[in-house]
Write a structure and sequence with these properties.
This protein is mostly beta strands and about 160 residues long. It contains one helix and ten strands. The chain has a four-stranded antiparallel beta sheet, with no helix packed on it. A four-stranded antiparallel beta sheet has the order 3-8-5-6, with no helix packed on it. Strands 2-9 form a two-stranded antiparallel ribbon.
């Protein structure tokens, strides 16, 4: 009993001290692991230090039922002024051998994917990030209406390390 408690205590402490640069982290679950093409996931944050620079990451949790080796996302970063920066991003999710990238045991893997590097947030107010998928089968013009196998999508913001 004591060894289990000690292991749990060590695990909690190590996880809580993992990333002192982290300033924002949030996840949106995908109902039943079926991400609809018109489902935009919205993340909002504010009150970041306007004199600091940050790195932003998109976190994806996927199951073995994910049928692709890559992932296309459309992101929109909306500033408090209303200006929006839209990007189409592609991420590698598996090796050519079929081995999943990312961390995790069992059928769920988590990938921490670069989104923005050394970005600043000079204005006060609420910033918004919208994320949607843009997957389609090879040769198809129309996107997949339902992307299966993605269980959660997250956004993380970390202070960029000073060199």
């Amino acid at each position: 009993m004591q060894s289990k408690f000690l292991f749990l205590l060590i695990a909690v402490l190590s996880l809580s001290s993992c990333n002192e640069l982290l300033v924002y982290s949030d996840y949106e679950p995908i109902k039943e692991g079926k991400w609809e093409i018109d489902q935009k996931l919205e993340f909002q944050f504010s009150e970041l230090d306007s004199t600091a620079t940050y790195n932003m990451f998109i976190n994806i949790r996927n199951e073995d039922t994910y049928a692709f080796s890559n992932l296309f996302l459309i992101t929109e970063l909306e500033y408090p002024s209303g200006n929006t920066v839209k990007d189409t991003l592609e991420y590698k999710m598996a090796e050519p051998s079929g081995e999943w990238l990312g961390k995790g045991m069992g059928s769920v893997k988590e990938n921490k994917l670069w989104y923005k590097e050394k970005i600043d947030f000079p204005n006060s107010g609420v910033y918004k990030v919208n994320i949607s998928h843009a997957m389609r089968k090879n040769g198809d013009v129309e996107g997949l209406h339902i992307l299966e196998g993605v269980t959660d999508v997250g956004l993380e913001i970390e202070k960029a390390p000073k060199l």
